[in-house]
Protein 1
Amino acid sequence: MNKKTVRDIDVKGKKVLVRCDFNVPQDENLNITDNRRIVGALETIKYLLDNSAKVILCSHLGRPKGQVKPEFSLAPVAKELSRLLGKEVKLAGDIIGESAKELVNNIKEGEAILLENVRFDKREEENDPEFSKELASLAEIYVNDAFGTAHRAHASTAGVAAYLPAVSGFLIEKELKFLGEALNNPKRPFVAIMGGKKVSDKIEVIEKLLEKVDTLMIVGAMEYTFFKAQGHSVGNSICEEDKLELANSLMEKAKEKGVKFMLPVDTKVGKEFDKDTESKVVKTTEMPEGWIGLDIGPETVELYSKELENAATVLWNGPAGLSEFEQFAFGTNSIANKLANINAVTVIGGGDSAAAVEKAGVADKMTHISTGGGASLEYLEGKLLPGIECLDEVEK
């Protein structure tokens, strides 16, 4: 996408409203347990500060549903930002009220402030034009760097762009570069690994990928719908009975397109959904009655690893099993470690896969880890993202 970035405009002395994704997890004492999203926004924020902008940051946190709820305050984020930047980031007591206006009026070049949670006002998610206009009136330039919410047409992600020059930050630029290149101009062979629970969640992505990839590997609970479609028993595994025809048509489409469509050859099954359940490895085509498929088996890991060794581009979205339980995390961890050790462009499509490479300690070995689960899926499906569509085009 040919969108302007912060590099394409003069920000010196200007009030710049930056939409970030500070929707970070916290413990019961409101301590941030994972600051990756805040760290991800630093490059854009530092660039603006270094170029003498007056930076007004905004974000949502959680789902307060238009109500002011202290547990969803951005106070912990302001504190963490101040620590990471080495300078104070003051938090406004509201979004577009007296407190916000006072901070905005007194902000100096090279300083940053943070508005309170934009979702404390129900008009944010309604993309209310009046609210968008008021938010925009605080600034002279709008920067969207919240890829995680770019698929939502909210006031702070799209609405404000109607009233201000609108450009992307470095995080969105990076997302579009790597996801876009993986889809439109991949180095080949191009391998996609698709996991997760349901085929129905990933239909459009799989269909789109079948037009682009050389190999498609299926992992996770969605594999059982494909096996059932082929007439195999899947025990008590998750299976979408109403998607069997679809599963067959996807396998047929792969054949027509000359795409190598890989399904697991063995499965680690458990008696029940429990971290300490009895488990064993079986051939995927010989699932025992009453057991549940909860991970790919060692033979599959070996088979997939061999295929991945030749890949030049790999896109991974969705875990290989119930990886939150240690005894069913082998498949997911093995994929993460394999991707860390191959000479390929590795793009991780956000969500659980991003958490998996982080947990395996190999995040720094990946070419790109997407910050937006839902947004990256919609982008891969070929959908237009409102938070990106609204940005100004580079003049040709």
Note: The first helix runs from residue 36 to 50.
Protein 2
Amino acid sequence: MKKIDIKSFTLEELTHELKEQGLAGFRARQIYQWIHEKLADSFDDMTNLSKELRKTLSETYELITLQIVDVRISEVDQTRKYLFQLPDGHVIESVLMKYQYGYSVCISSQVGCRMGCRFCASTLEGLERNLRPSEMLDQIYQIQKSLGQRISHVVVMGSGEPLDNYENLLRFLFLLTNENGLNISQRNITVSTCGIEPNIRKLAQEHLQITLALSLHAPNDQVRKKLMPIANQYKLEDILDACQEYFKETGRRVTFEYSLVRGINDNLEEAKQLTALLKHSHGHVNLIPVNPIRERDYVQSGQKEIQAFKLYLEKNGIHVTIRREMGRDIGGACGQLRKSYLEQKKEG
């Protein structure tokens, strides 16, 4: 019999489930607290439950726990990159970053990715499968335990396209922000998408207070199609209209991620086009010096071009920052650690 994923239950669902098993309702709160507050790795850790009950739980339910395969720590900025093994043997990665405001974790939402963005290592092996809510949560839980510090911010911007795993993402967000769990503020969570327009509109209707980040990377459809295959399916005009809807429904301004690639999207003509595109967007542009991967021939823009691009946007009323590069010496780009691990495994 296939075991049930207990970590993906809400408290209400767990209460109902255990009552169906003939257990008292208060047990659900005890177990939920062990899973989502005390971050127990096994039912045996739940010491205020009887041995008999722990045995019964372990026979019926699966308590998803990720195993840390590798941790890389940057000598430059102490960024940590984690490689986790899932119960089925697949591997995913997460990144821990320290800021003045606290610790932020960037997590994966899928094993691999099918979006095919040209500058991203996550997509090189294609999509294996979606992550369950429990598997997204446990990346944060394991990092918090290994660090011994509270995680205050979460970014769903690692391997995978979160809005391609929509229902699991919503459940993950509910569990992460629930007062009976880590209770991380919705305002401290960012979800990134390459632009699945219908699901941006769906997300707007959820009326959450999370930050939506759009991987824009180009000021027009022609350039965007060179970088992102999703641009062949959804036009920028429609995607930006969906982002406006998100702002209207939630009051949360959208972040526009723009990776600067030398000779592709970094000249002042493109800065001019980007200004015209976003001048009424109620958003913020995050310029990202692209993190090169060896499988692609894209090169990071020079500092002169990056600063000129930023200055043009600022002079024309666009809110803009340059993202601080972190973890460059440990393969900081999405998917790099996982890909190198899979290559070594094949060779071994």
Note: The first strand starts at residue 4 and ends at 5.
